[in-house]
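Final paragraph of the annual report: two paired records, presented back to back.
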Amino acid sequence: MITKLSPAQAFERAVQLLDTQPAGALSQAEAILTQVRGFPPAEFLACQALRRLDKPKAALPRLAALARSQPRALAVIWELAQAASEAGDAGQAIAALESLTRQQPNVATGWFLLARELRKAGRVQDAWRADLSGVHASSRDPELLAAAVAMNENRLDDSEAILKARLGRLPDDPATCRLLGEIIWRRGDMTEALALVERAVDLAPGYDLARDFLIRLLLQSNRLSEALEHAEILTGSPLNNPGHDGLMASVLVRLGDQDRAREIYERLLAQQPEQPQIWQNLGHVLKTLGRQADAIHAYRQAVTHQPTMGEAWWSLANLKTVKLGADDIAAMQAALESLEQGEATSQEDVFHLHFSLGKALEDAKDYPASFRHYELGNRLRRPMVLHDAEGFSAEVAAATNVFTSAFLAGMGEGGCRAPDPIFIVGLPRSGSTLVEQILASHSQVEGTMELAEMMIIASRLQSRVDEGEFPDFGAMANALTPADRLRLGEEYIERTRVHRHTDKPLFIDKMPNNWQHVGLIRLILPNAKIIDARRHPMACCFSGWKQHFARGQAFSYDLVDIGRYYRDYVTHMAAFDRAAPGAVHRVIYEQMVADTPGEVRRLLDHVGVPFEDACLEFWRTRRAVRTASSEQVRQPIFTDAVEHWRMFAPWLGQLEATLGDLVPHYPDMA
């Protein structure tokens, strides 16, 4: 005996079939409608089944009729919006979603789908606003709030678990992708973090916070062209956020387009002049462009608006040709006292002020007080940076042992034959900016900046050892085929192309730390020129120790650390000289000062370009210079810095002991 199902039972059975057997659900729903004509739940179920059967056009008129009869039935409106979207009827989808978001403004999914439909219809600004409304709605989501709280409390495992479970249910949720991307970034996995944040931006192109974060990740990854593309998009946001313009300026600075960055900062200050951070940023750009008087004005505006702004004071002091006077010293001491008495002291402001006072008191010839402030600044800064002197020495020794003459000969021909790059290596404060400015004054040589590309390539190769693919660096280097070396060399040339703004055949990479990678350079760019800029070990190390660097150079905040670093550098370069005689041209700073014409001719001969008088008048060359010596190279060579370190000799015993026999044997260290 066959039991006939009641309409209620049939409906319950159809609901059970919807997800797994939509055809069966549709059949049951249609059967119910023959018994109970116009029954809304059955009609809605039939439309759901049609959409799951990829028949949105068939479902659309029935859903529209249901929505007209039940204008507050949100599930019907949502189904109508999705069916219209799948059927390609953007107008009907938009109308449904606008109704839905009016009634449920705190449901982010509706806003994000509305944004996609508006974008399809060419209504870009309206779509952007819808995405922003979706982000605002997401900020009230209890699950996302719980994940954010866990992240901010550094409970990364808890936060990640919440977000991954949510992403399993909602794979297309932009806010979940962005927040999970931040968790992964905090864990140190840049590749996965970038993928997640890029997905958030793909899903919701108007998600400004995600695009802002993506730009910062791209900058950290040195993917500058992509960062610029996203920054240009972000500046079109309907929110008109000045922070977007500031981020664009930061990207332009990294790309070396100082003039465009200057225009942005000046425009922002014209709108709101009392912004110390923008004044400081403008000062950096003006300094790089060689507009010293304007840079000084900008930095002084910054400290006028915020007297405790240590970085702005240091930026003033760091203009090596500027001397801070008694009034400035008093103002900095007052700022330091104010910071040290405050409850929420900014350690960065404090150590910047110590470095600044060290420079001001050095100029005032109060060397004991100057050294005391330099020491305090370094003592505060050292715990903030990671530098394992023992581990670093071991890494350098390993590289030294790999790149022997036998190894280089055994590797044979290979690499990219492009002659374009000129690498200037050594320690900071060694005269490398002077060498760069001399070369960049030549008609065939373009000066760029300190480029990170070679270090990125070297780090990627080292990661293959760290991840266990090779037992050590030597095995990895030995495994590089001619094709691998060609590819890596071409990658370097391609990645640095964004920094080249002229058609000059040669360009300079002035990243000093590339001395660690001279062997790799030889393997992948055999025709590249390498210049080693060297300065007396006491003068160079002391100058580096009293210099606060904007980034990198973690070895420079302790006199013993910097002395060890200098020893590692000299040892490695001497070994490479033996392995590849003549591959490196050494410029001794003191010899360049004593015989500039002769040293310049020898330098140009090594690079392979004819002598030009402009190289002797390098200070007349107008170009952006982004190092601590930017102002010094805009004037003729002066000699008073050669022996200046001796004024501080009574306090440099640790450094001298660490350097050992390098001091009396300079410059014949090899």
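The closing record of the year follows.
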Amino acid sequence: MKNKFLFCFSVLLCSFSLMAQKNTPKKIKEQIAVYKKDARGPYKDIRWFCTDGSIRQPKDPCPDNIGPGNQHARYKDDVEKLAKSNHIFLGQILTNTDKDEFWDTKNNHSRLKQYQLDKYLRGVDDGWINRKGQFYRGAVQSEDEEAWGIDFYKALLSNDQNIEQNYFLIRQSLKDIPHNGDDNVAQLMRSQSKVISDKFIEFMDLRVKIHSQPEKNDIAKVAAFKQKYDSQLSASLKNEIDVLINTMSTFFKPTDTSALLKNAPFLKNTILGDKITSYISSNSVVSDKSMLIKETAQLLYDIRESLLDEKRGMARLQLLDVSLKLEEILFKNTSQWETKSLEELLDKICYLGLAATGAGYTELDEWQQLDLTVKPSVNATMTLEDLTTLLENARRQVEWSSSMVKANYQHIVDEYTAFEPKAYGFIDDKIRGSIALYLGLSVSDLGDFIAEESSLTNQVMDIPNQSGFRGLNPGYAFGELVVVTGSPDDIEVSSNKIYIFQRAPADLKPIAGIATVSEGNMVSHVQLLARNLGIPNAALSDDNLSSLSKYNGQNVFYAVSNKGNVILKLESQMTAIERDLFSKKVRANEKIEVPVDAIKLDQTSILDLRTVDATDSGKSCGPKAANLGQLKKMFPDQVVEGMVIPFGIFRDHMNEPMPNQNKSYWEFLNAMFKQADNMRSQNTDEDEVEKYQLQQLDILRTAIKQMPLQAEFVKNLEINFQSILGQPLGNIPVFLRSDTNMEDLKEFTGAGLNLTIFNEVEKNKILQGIKDVWASPYTERSFKWRQKYLLNPENVFPSILVIPSVDVDFSGVLITKGISNGNDNDLTVAFSRGAGGAVDGQAAETYTIKNAGGFQFLAPAREQLYNSLPITGGTEKKSASFNKFILNTQNINEIRTLAATIRERLPKETKLDYDGAYDVELGFKDNKLWLFQIRPFVENKKALSSEYLESITPKIDKNKAISLSKII
């Protein structure tokens, strides 16, 4: 009967009902507001839940002949409905919850993450939905919750795969799910300080200190604050400060290493248990903080590395609890390791990196790729170049550690933020509560030291930790600074403003300059467009973004040099030379004209990809189809069959009458451009001209999407579909890729501006997809990017490349140049799992493949969800783990061979004068390489050769020897 109850309970809470209508964020927000005022919060009443499945009144406990039951609250009906409709679980009670459904594998562990987020919100928002319900006696029984937690982890940790694939998430969840009577004191301390600063703004500086670098002497500072503002503080605030002081005193109690094995009987007489015992013995009296931190970091790493050798679930749970206590020891004591020399600082970074790996912020294989071990020369020096390499690797680990938190929690945080804005602080709290915080501070110290030694100093306002800035793309800009602290997806950007984002929006419109915390990857469409147009682009830290918030809305000058140093200053601080950069004449020669003299608009029959090659680019079709046809000739077994809908078919349809306009679609388009020119001749403001054009383009785009397709064209499509792709139209999934004549010009890439229809099967949807692709060059984003660079944007013609889908295991981009080091002989590759990898700005697995042999690992993949392409069409989201690399040695060697062949044969076979690098999209299915696109890799030569950018780029002596004993 117990199993029957659990089944009914899970159906009630977890199953998705096709009939259930999803609640809007506004509705959920209203729901939560009600719960905050309700004395029972999200709960309806309290009942006994008996082992036979029966439910009894609170004063009628389960009888002895049935067996012991559990008493706890039931959820309100609206809470249960929300679980069904939105998969949102409020006020979760663990007791009697099905453990597999709580682990929630099919939804990327959403329920577990929501439990953690709920707990955070209760801490920072006075109980949140349980503001009054937290006093509802009997709603939750702590001993039952703890017993449930122990059973949950015993089962979860008995499975090796769970640990291998979700080590970070499981270890983090231990801080929130009751199982051993402990509280997360560090998180409680941060939550309490936040609550006080929200109510009394003068406490903000102390809150920032407690959040960013907590130290024991902060207790005295909080007490002094209370005394200073005594007359302004309410009685309740004084009490809250006293509670915070008490929490801080608990947190900063002297380290008691002897307590590590207090509740860990399963570890007695085991290899790791003996290591812990030895650690306790050697650190019973702590005098040397540096030695304590080194030994703690090593033990933390050893537990992670050897956890799978211990097969008992309960023993693994106790080891992870020890691991959490070790991180707490590091968190309390790291600030007391004051490094005096360069060698000590490098040593500290190495051990903190080891600890971050042990704590799960970096995967074990990733750590092996980060060489943070100091290798001094015979005379105990390191060159500036070797130090810089070590800094870059250490900085990468800081970024990877932050991205591990974001990758695991960002999706659920974004969902909650839509109805509860306070949820956005959860990720920041997780990062600040980790050893990665201290790793970042130490790396920042090293960055400042190297910047001074190399004269590669950033000049970013007056903010601290400026070494956190790292230029990605050279260029300069002037405009209003917009600092976006939340989600960027709903921000309407302007082409004359400079934006600081957590991450770049996937459909970013033209802007003057950009900097992001989440770099994405070097070969995403946004990065390529920025590189192409000379838009300054940099990476920065979370702290840097927060520090810049005070300058939001002010006019600034922003520049990134050819070596990556960054300048960001207020307009009033600009030099005369910097002001002259923005005179009207500067950009006069930047625009180019799309060549249309050789275009073949009379080609109105579908083409077989096998009959197309590079010479057809800009004539019958765009460069995607032309170059893929060329690749088909060169690599026939690695390029799919395909067909091309040429420019002429589009143009032929544009000659048809446009409904309600008394003119053709083509005439409507040209009339719009003519009127825009007339407006400019009358000195109409350019914003008004653009507004008019976008309104007209919206009308045209809507009309094209509804355009009847010519019967002769549809018949031609069906015949060719069968003869070329081997199946009738509607039987196999295909990609429809927009392929315009304005892409891949020598001066302009156009990467990712127009539409690709993913994996479509149904005939009607493919036919509609053709019209949607034809309409896509007239979207606001596409038009604005073109308008920025093209003299004749009216002469943009879309062709369409139609190719069958390949459900690749992983895919990405190859650039036949080393982007990070500027070496033309190296290669850059970025891959993500599934289809469409790396191009949309995912945090992709990135390498520099060296011409001299070997490779350098630059970044891991940090995307938990990826696209799979089912044979039935559309896309499916699948979950990934980070414990294994995407590319193997065989894949890398194949890519190296492919690049060599492209470099050697493509210029000869195309007889083109292009001699630059190539941008190749490719994928692997069952370790077979497939090619999907090749295009020139276009860089902005003006930005790279700018006299001003050259003037702010310091000359660095890479061979400068620096003594490791140098005082810092």
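The two ends are 69 Å apart (CA to CA). This concludes the annual technical report; the extension proposal builds directly on these records.
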